[in-house]
C-alpha cells in the first residue's frame, strides 16, 4: 500500500477526519451531484469517494452495490496519489487495473473518470467519479462538466471547513469567557486588566449593563457592530441603542436569537448570551452579542440549492414533492381545479448523440425558459429528471386546458439556433386532473400523469393524452 500513499498522507487524513464526513448519512447536496454525473455522461455508476487510511468510502453513490471498498482496489487512490484528473478508457488495457477484482469480475469496471476533491489547503480528500462497464472515451465537454460538478462538491467542503473553523473560534472564545465568569465574583478586582484585554480583543460585541439596563461597558466589537462609539453608548439604556423591546430578565441556558437595530436603522440578526453577577453588592449583567448574518445567509443558500435544479434553475424534484401536497390540499379546501402536466421531450437523445451533452444542456435551459414564459406567473414548473418536466396548474378551466397544452407543444417545437446548429425537439404531454374527493396520494397523481405521457408517445409523440380518472381501475 505504501506505493499508493501521497507524501502529504498524514496531513490529508487529518483534514479528512476533521471534516467529519466519513460514515455519515446521505445528503441531498451530494446526491444531486452523482445523479447529474450519470445523466450528463450517460454512465450507470457515479460516486463521491473519500479515501480513508485503508478504505474507499462513498459519501454518495449511484449504481454501486456497496458503500466502501479496500483502498488498494480503489481507482480513486490513484487520483489522490497523482493529484490530477484520472481517466481510464479501458481498465483491462491498463496495467495498474487489469488484474483488479472489480475489473475482472463479470460486469466489472472498464471505464473510469475521477476529478480530485481538494480542501481549502489543496489536500486531495477523494474524488468525483464516473464509471461504466464498457470502455469509452471522455470528451472535453464531458470532462469540463465533471469539473464543474466537482467544483460544487469542493465548494461544499470549503463551506464546511469555514463553519468548523468558526465553531472552533466560538468554542474557544466561549470557553475562555466561561472560565472568567466562574471566578468573576471573587476576583473581579484582580482580573480587571485581563478581562478588559479579552473583551476588547473579542470577536463578539460585549457590554455590561446595570439593573436598569444602562450601559456600563462597551467594547470595540460593539462599536463596530452597532455604530455607536463607547462614549455615545455609556449610560444609555439598551432600548435606545439596539434592543427597542429590551432583553429578557433571566439568564438563558441557550443563546437568544433575535434582531438588533444598528445606529443607522439596519436590522442585524444576532445571538445573545446573558450572565448576571454582582459588583460590591450591585447587580450587573454581561451581554455577549454574536452577529449571525453570514451564517443565516449560508443556511438560506444551502436550503435554496437543495430545492433548485443546478442546470435549469427550475425547482427540482424535492421542491415538487413539497409543493404538490400543498396544492392538493388547496383543491380540497377551495374546490378549485388542479391539473398536472407531465412533459417528456421527443428527440432529446438524438440531440445529445449528434451535438454532445453541452448542446443538450443548452437546449434544456432554453426549454425551461420557454415553459416559464408560456404559463402564468402563479403556475409551478419543476424539472423532474433528465428531459422530463412537471407543470402544476391551479384554477385552470377544462376549456382552457387543451389550448394551453397545445401551446406548450408549439413553443417547444420552435427551433433553437446555437451557433451554426439548429436544434429541434417536440414534447409529449400527459394530463392528470385532481378532484377534491379523490383518495389519491401525490405519487399516485404523478404516476397517472406519467402514464398518460407514455400513452401520448405511443400515439405518435408531440401530442397530449388525458389520464384515466383517479377512481377508475386500469383497463384489462
From TrEMBL:
<feature type="domain" description="GGDEF">
    <location>
        <begin position="336"/>
        <end position="469"/>
    </location>
</feature>
<dbReference type="Pfam" id="PF00990">
    <property type="entry name" value="GGDEF"/>
</dbReference>
<dbReference type="InterPro" id="IPR000014">
    <property type="entry name" value="PAS"/>
</dbReference>
<dbReference type="InterPro" id="IPR000160">
    <property type="entry name" value="GGDEF_dom"/>
</dbReference>
<dbReference type="GO" id="GO:0006355">
    <property type="term" value="P:regulation of DNA-templated transcription"/>
</dbReference>
<dbReference type="InterPro" id="IPR029787">
    <property type="entry name" value="Nucleotide_cyclase"/>
</dbReference>
<dbReference type="InterPro" id="IPR013767">
    <property type="entry name" value="PAS_fold"/>
</dbReference>
<dbReference type="Pfam" id="PF01590">
    <property type="entry name" value="GAF"/>
</dbReference>
<dbReference type="GO" id="GO:0003824">
    <property type="term" value="F:catalytic activity"/>
</dbReference>
<protein>
    <submittedName>
        <fullName>Sensor domain-containing diguanylate cyclase</fullName>
    </submittedName>
</protein>
<dbReference type="InterPro" id="IPR043128">
    <property type="entry name" value="Rev_trsase/Diguanyl_cyclase"/>
</dbReference>
<feature type="domain" description="PAS">
    <location>
        <begin position="191"/>
        <end position="245"/>
    </location>
</feature>
<dbReference type="InterPro" id="IPR035965">
    <property type="entry name" value="PAS-like_dom_sf"/>
</dbReference>
<dbReference type="InterPro" id="IPR052155">
    <property type="entry name" value="Biofilm_reg_signaling"/>
</dbReference>
<dbReference type="InterPro" id="IPR003018">
    <property type="entry name" value="GAF"/>
</dbReference>
<dbReference type="InterPro" id="IPR029016">
    <property type="entry name" value="GAF-like_dom_sf"/>
</dbReference>
<dbReference type="Pfam" id="PF00989">
    <property type="entry name" value="PAS"/>
</dbReference>
Amino acid at each position: 500500500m505504501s506505493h499508493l500513499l501521497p507524501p502529504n498522507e498524514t496531513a490529508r487524513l487529518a483534514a479528512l477526519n476533521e471534516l467529519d464526513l466519513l460514515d455519515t448519512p446521505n445528503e441531498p447536496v451530494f446526491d444531486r451531484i452523482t445523479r447529474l454525473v450519470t445523466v450528463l455522461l450517460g454512465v450507470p455508476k457515479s460516486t463521491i469517494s473519500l479515501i480513508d487510511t485503508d478504505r474507499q468510502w462513498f459519501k454518495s453513490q449511484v449504481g454501486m452495490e456497496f458503500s466502501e471498498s479496500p483502498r488498494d482496489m480503489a481507482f480513486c487512490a490513484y487520483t489522490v496519489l497523482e493529484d490530477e484528473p484520472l481517466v481510464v478508457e479501458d481498465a483491462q488495457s491498463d496495467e495498474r487495473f487489469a488484474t483488479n477484482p472489480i475489473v475482472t469480475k463479470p460486469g466489472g469496471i472498464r471505464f473510469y473518470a475521477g476529478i480530485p476533491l481538494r480542501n481549502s489547503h489543496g489536500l486531495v480528500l477523494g474524488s468525483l467519479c464516473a464509471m461504466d462497464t464498457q470502455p469509452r472515451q471522455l470528451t472535453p465537454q464531458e470532462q469540463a462538466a465533471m469539473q464543474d460538478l466537482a467544483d460544487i462538491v469542493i465548494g461544499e467542503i470549503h463551506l464546511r471547513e469555514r463553519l468548523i473553523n468558526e465553531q472552533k473560534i466560538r468554542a474557544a472564545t466561549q470557553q475562555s469567557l466561561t472560565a472568567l465568569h466562574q471566578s468573576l465574583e471573587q476576583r473581579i478586582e484582580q482580573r480587571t486588566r485581563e478581562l478588559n484585554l479579552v473583551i476588547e480583543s473579542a470577536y463578539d460585541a460585549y457590554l455590561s449593563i446595570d439593573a436598569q439596563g444602562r450601559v456600563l461597558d462597551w467594547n470595540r466589537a460593539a462599536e463596530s457592530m452597532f455604530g455607536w462609539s463607547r462614549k455615545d453608548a455609556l449610560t444609555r439604556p439598551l432600548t435606545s441603542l439596539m434592543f427597542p423591546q429590551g432583553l429578557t430578565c433571566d439568564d438563558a441556558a441557550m443563546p437568544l436569537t433575535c434582531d438588533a437595530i444598528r445606529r443607522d436603522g439596519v436590522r442585524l440578526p444576532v445571538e445573545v448570551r446573558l450572565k448576571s453577577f454582582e459588583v460590591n453588592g450591585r447587580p450587573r449583567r454581561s451581554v455577549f452579542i454574536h452577529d449571525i448574518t453570514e451564517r443565516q445567509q449560508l443556511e438560506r443558500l444551502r436550503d435554496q440549492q437543495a430545492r433548485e435544479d443546478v442546470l435549469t434553475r427550475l425547482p427540482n424534484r424535492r421542491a415538487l414533492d413539497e409543493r404538490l401536497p400543498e396544492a392538493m390540499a388547496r383543491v380540497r379546501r377551495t374546490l378549485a381545479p388542479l391539473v398536472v402536466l407531465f412533459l417528456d421531450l421527443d428527440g432529446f437523445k438524438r440531440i445529445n448523440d449528434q451535438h454532445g451533452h453541452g448542446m443538450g444542456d443548452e437546449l434544456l435551459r432554453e426549454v425551461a425558459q420557454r415553459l416559464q414564459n408560456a404559463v402564468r406567473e402563479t403556475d409551478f414548473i419543476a424539472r423532474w429528471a433528465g428531459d422530463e418536466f412537471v407543470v402544476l396548474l391551479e384554477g385552470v378551466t377544462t376549456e382552457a386546458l387543451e389550448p394551453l397544452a397545445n401551446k406548450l407543444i408549439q413553443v417547444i417545437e420552435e427551433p433553437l439556433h446555437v451557433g451554426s446548429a439548429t436544434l429541434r425537439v417536440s414534447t409529449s404531454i400527459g394530463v392528470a386532473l385532481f378532484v377534491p374527493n379523490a383518495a389519491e396520494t401525490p405519487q399516485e397523481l404523478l404516476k397517472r400523469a406519467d402514464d398518460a405521457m407514455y400513452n401520448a408517445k405511443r400515439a405518435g409523440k408531440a401530442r397530449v393524452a388525458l389520464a384515466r380518472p383517479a377512481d377508475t381501475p386500469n383497463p384489462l
